[in-house]
Structure formats: structure tokens, C-alpha cells
Amino acid sequence: MAHIHLEDGAFSLPWLALWSLLAAGVIALSLFVLRKGGMTTRKLAVAAMAASVGFAASQIDIPVFGGLHLNFTPLIGILVGPALGSLCALVINVFGAAVGHGGWGMIGANTLVNALEIVLGYYSYRLMRGRLKTGRFTSGFSATAFALIISALVVAGIVIVSGIQDSQQTGEEALPSMTVLIAANMLTGIIEGLATGYIVSFIGRVRPDLLEESEAERTEGMAMVVAKGRANV
């Protein structure tokens, strides 16, 4: 959901290089994890569909506060995991830049932000389902809202730290407008959290196998309980 909609030239070259290098590190780590752990064609197909939905959703503007949109990045993390999900984030941002949704130079920073949403969404959902034993709707909503609220703060931090070239405002002077943007992104994050909660609940009823990775801890725990019960019998 959080996205830096600035055009090329907004950030100076040193900051562009920094965010791009950090994003490249995240992608390299994701590729390493996938290569080490293996990846099935089925999981790759799910990731392709998730990336398509994420890209399509990001092109639909909500006409408030200059235009907001959903990305479903936490949902992507829940479905395909943090490593493959980070690659989906890169693909979404590359195609977004190709259609003018942010500058090409913003791909690195936006990939970092969206990868953070994916990682936080995945692990928050896994924690809530496995350790806290909450339902799918509550887990999907809470994980998404948490991930997107954090990413909204990160986006503001990136913009304030990097600065906008040719802008007459200092970081402190831009803080009030950034506060409004953060509040708008947080509100949108809650809306996306509700949507994700319903989607995860529906998937859990019709295709629970698609959630097997993010619910692995819960499944293993239930299996241990069943096994223990049989042993006692």
C-alpha cells in the first residue's frame, strides 16, 4: 500500500544508489533462500498470480489525499512467503514504473518498502495463527494493518532523510504534510487489512492448501496434539 510516487530526479544520486543497493541486497538474499530451500512450479504459479493481482490493485487509485491505492503486499507474503514475495514486490514496482507509477529511480526504495510489508505481514500472520491461535480474519487483518502502518512510517522516513531536490522546504518544514500523508496511508492500511482478512478467510475455506506455509506452525502444533491424544488412547 505504501508507495513513493515521486518522479525521477526527486532524490539525489547518492540516495538513489543507497536505496537501490539495499534493495539489491534484499533481492539477492531472497534468491539465495529460494535456491537453498527449493521452489515448486506450483508455488511459482501462485506467486505469478499474486504479483498480477498486486500490480492490478496498485493501478486503481482511491481519490482521496491526492490518490491512494491498495497493493495487497502483506497478502502476497501470507500466500508465498517473504523470499518469493520480495521478488513479487520487485516485479510489481518494475511494471509500475513502466506505466508511469513512480519513477524508475524509485524502484529500489519502493521495493524495500514493499518487501518490508511482505515480511512483516507473513511473520505477523504466522505468529497470530500459530502462537496466539487467532482466527484467519483477525490474523489477516491485524498482520496487514500492522505491516502497512509500519511501512507508512518508513516511507515518510525515506522521503525526509533523502530530501527532495529543488524543494524549498527543509525536512522539518515538510513534516506537517508528511504527517497528513502518514495518517492517510495508515487509514488505507486499515481498509486493506479488512479486505485481506476477508480474502484470507475465503481462501482458508476453499483452498486452505494455499496458506500451508504461513500456517505451518499451527498445523504442526495441531498434529502434535492429535498424535499425543492417540498415544494416550
Summing up helix and strand content along with how strands pair, one would put the structural category as mainly alpha
Mean pLDDT: 85
Backbone shape = globular
Give a short account of the largest sheet.
Answer: none
Q: Which blocks of ≥5 consecutive residues have pLDDT under 50? A: 219-233
User: Helicity range of the residues?
Assistant: over 70%
What fraction of residues sit in β-strands?
A: under 5%
Task: Specify the number of helices.
Answer: 8
CATH architecture: Orthogonal Bundle
CATH topology (fold) name: Arp2/3 complex 21 kDa subunit ARPC3
Radius of gyration: 19 Å
State the domain count. 1
Determine the N-to-C terminus distance.
50 Å
- Can you identify the CATH class? Mainly Alpha
Q: What's the helix-strand series?
A: HHHHHHHH
- What is the tally of beta strands? 0
What's the quick description here?
The chain has 233 residues and is mostly helical. The chain contains eight helices and no strands.
Key structural traits:
single chain, 233 residues, mainly alpha, Arp2/3 complex 21 kDa subunit ARPC3, 8 helices
